[in-house]
Amino acid sequence: MELSYYEILEIAQNADKESIKKAYRKLALQYHPDRNQGDKEAESKFKLINEAYEILSDDEKRALYDRYGKEGLRGASGGFGGFSDFEDLNDIFSSFFGGGSRSRKKRSQGENFDLSLAIALNLSFKEAVFGCKKEVEFSYKKACQSCNASGAKGGKLQTCPKCRGRGQVGVQQGFITFAQTCPDCRGSGESAGEKCPECKGRGFDEFADRVEVSVPEGINSGMSLRVSARGNVGKDGSRGDLFVKIFAAEDAIFIRDDEDIYIEFPVFFTQAILGQSVKVPTIRGEALLSLPKGAKDGQRFVLENEGVKDVRSSRIGRQIVQIAIKFPHTINEEQTKLLEQLGESFGVQDGVHQEQKGLFEKIATWFKG
C-alpha cells in the first residue's frame, strides 16, 4: 500500500506548517545522500520526503491533495511529478537549510555541472558545541579541456535525438501528458554524437583535494560552512565555492535544542525533601543547583549561561535540569528503624497517616445510607 505524504513525513493530517518544516528537517537530515552514500533505499526515501514537503508546504497543492489525492495534482503547475532529476531535490534541501541555489554559482553555458560543490562533515557532539579544526578530503570536477566540457569528441555536438532539440520530453501520467527536462541533454537540446575519449563523455575530470575547515563554536546539524574557491572548476578556469554541510552527533547524557541543553539528573529523596544543594554536570564542567525544600519528581530548573554559544550572536543559552527523585532499593536494619521513627514523627501510627485516616472517614459515609 502506498504511503500518504503525511505518513512519509510522519505527521498528522492536521499538522501546521511549523510541524511540517520540523518533520522535513529531521527526515531530510537522516536520509540525505551525503550521509548515506551508496544506499539506494535512503536515496529513494529522500526523494519521497522532498516530494511530500513540496506538496504539503504549499497551501494550494496541499488543499488539492487533501481533497483529490495525488490524482488532483496531475498537471498542476510545478506540482506532482515536477522533479526533473535528483539535483532538483538537492536544491530544495539546500535552500531549506542554507547555502541554497540563490547563493550558489550555477553552471556556465555548455557545462553539465554546478561550480558550487557540497560535501558532508560529521562532527561529534563536543566538536559542534565548542568548535574545532577539521581537515576534509573531497573530489571536485574540472571541465574537460579536450571537449570544452561538452562530453563530445572534439567538442562536436548534435541535436539530441531523445528530445529532438527541444530540451524537454513528454511524460504520460494517466490521461495527462506533462513536460519534463530531457534526462539525456539536461535541457540543452544537444548531445554528444561520439563521446570524448578523455573524459568518457562526462564533460569533466575529477581530482582529489583536501582543505582545513575552521568549525565555529555552536554550529549545529543542517548548517553549512562556505569555503571560497574550493569547488568545481569551469571551462573558463573559474572555481566555485565549497559548501560543507554539518551533521552533529547526539550525546548520551546531554540533549541539545539549538542553544539550550537539557539533562535529566538523579536526586536522592532526602536531598529533595531537605532542599539541599547538588552539583550538576554541565557541558563546561559543573554547576551548583540549590533545590527548594520538597522538590518534586520531574521538576525543572534553569541554569542561565550554561548552554551552547549561538554561532551568530555569541549569546550563550541555558541548561535545563530535570530532576528524577531516586529511592533506595534496599535498606538495612538501622535504616529501617530510622525511617520508622521518621514516619512516626510525621504522624504515621499503626500503618496509617493522618491524611489517609481522613480519607477513610469520608468514604465511610458512603455506607451510612
Order of helices and strands: HHHHHEHEEEEEEEEEEHEEEEHH
Distance between the termini: 60 Å
The amount of helix comes to: 25-40%
Instruction: Note the beta-strand portion.
Output: 25-35%
Determine the structural class based on helices, strands and strand pairing.
Answer: alpha+beta
Low-pLDDT runs: 75-104
Average pLDDT metric:
81
- The strand order across the widest sheet is 10-11-15-14
Q: What's the main sheet like?
A: 4 strands, mixed
Descriptive key words:
four-stranded mixed beta sheet, alpha+beta, three-stranded mixed beta sheet, 369 residues
Nutshell version of this structure?
With 369 residues, this protein is an alpha+beta fold.
Textual characterization of the structure:
- The model is unreliable at 75-104 (pLDDT under 50).
- The radius of gyration is 31 Å and the shape is elongated.
- It has 9 helices and 15 strands.
- The protein has a 4-stranded mixed beta sheet with strand order 10-11-15-14. Strands 1-9-8 form a 3-stranded mixed beta sheet.
- Helix content is 25%, strand content 26%.
